[in-house]
Amino acid sequence: MRAAGGALTDVSMVNAATSATVTGAFDAGKAAWTTNEPLGYGSTYRVTATAVSSDGRKVRQESTIGTLEPQKRAEPNLIPAPDAVAGTGIGVGQPIVFQFTAPVQDKAAVERQLSVVSQPAQEGSWYWIDDQHAHYRPQQYWQPGTTLTVSAKVYGVNFGNGVYGAEDRTETYHVHDSWIAKADGNAVQMTIYHNGSPVKTMPISMGKDSTPTHLGPHVISEKHAVFTMDSCTYGVCPGNPEYYRSDERWSLRISNDGEFVHENPASVSAQGNTNVSHGCINLNADNAKWFFDHFGLGDVVEVTNSGGPQLPVWDLYGDWALSWQDWQAGSALR
């Protein structure tokens, strides 16, 4: 609301359906009045304004305005869910992910409204995995003890193709101690590092030649005391000689195509000397329970010498497979 050639003295804006008053504020010269709260989608507002002209005349004007109703509204879901890590924090490898419930056509407009503020400060950047997933990671793993304030100020933002942001969202994450496991397919061993210092080494068995474990940093995304592993979930179904279905204990997911760190009693004799799994990292009972007790969401398993391909960037948290330069190129603002 703006006065031409005079000054506003009073402005009232009321939601026609609810009779709720919209708050706002004048600028320094009272030439303009602006709402300081978002207006609702698909709503009608009655506006009454009083102004005084430059020659002292008082003018009163009433009008009605309406806001658009989007064809679709996109929610900014966060991964990991803040509630899931409220008591534990996240590991140093955890990317911050906004998952939008509708495709984003204008990625640049949306990315301008996304932010991650780290304390202490660490350089980071966004990368669009696809039209609905924007990932954020630092150049290197997060520093232990970091606090992250994550925001999506997307309410009212035009995503394109009739989609608008459904709401704003701000959450806080805390990064716990650094837990990194380095799994070596040649040594058939996995060494555990806590805050940079080695604390334990355990024999493992990784993927055999026909089903090798992916190379590179993996990030833990799920924990299950017991988990049913079914190869049909990634296309290897009954009738295929590689099909399997079994309940495995102390299972931590490290990729979306069926790779876990877990106990496997059937491969104990191979652990430490031969890679025989379908791609998982197998441990004996004691080591699997220890690993389960010490590792959580966002902690890192770095795989070397597996004979497998690099973990793809799109495979849940393959974020660390890319160089910093390539990662930055995935921003819509580059």
Biggest β-sheet: strands ordered side by side in the sheet = 18-17-16-24-19
Strand content: 35-45%
CATH fold-level name of the largest domain = L,D-transpeptidase catalytic domain-like
Radius of gyration: 27 Å
Task: Compute the average pLDDT.
Answer: 96
Sheet with most strands: 5 strands, mixed
Morphology: elongated
Q: Helices and strands: which structural class?
A: mainly beta
Question: Roughly how many Å apart are the termini?
Answer: 36 Å
Q: Which CATH class of the largest domain is shown? A: Mainly Beta
Number of domains: 3
- What CATH architecture of the largest domain would you give? Beta Barrel
Fraction of residues in helices?
under 10%
Sum up the structure in keywords:
334 residues; mainly beta; Immunoglobulin-like; L,D-transpeptidase catalytic domain-like; 3 domains; five-stranded mixed beta sheet; four-stranded antiparallel beta sheet; 3 helices; 24 strands
What is the secondary structure topology, with strand pairs?
Blueprint: E1 6-15, E2 24-26, E3 33-35, E4 44-53, E5 58-66, E6 72-74, E7 76-79, E8 96-100, H1 107-111, E9 114-119, E10 124-130, E11 133-138, E12 147-152, E13 158-160, E14 163-165, E15 169-174, E16 179-184, E17 189-194, E18 197-203, E19 216-219, E20 222-230, E21 245-253, E22 260-263, E23 281-283, H2 285-294, E24 300-304, H3 324-328
Parallel strand pairs: 6-14, 16-24, 22-23
Antiparallel strand pairs: 1-4, 2-3, 4-5, 7-8, 8-11, 9-12, 10-11, 12-15, 13-14, 16-17, 17-18, 19-24, 20-21, 21-22
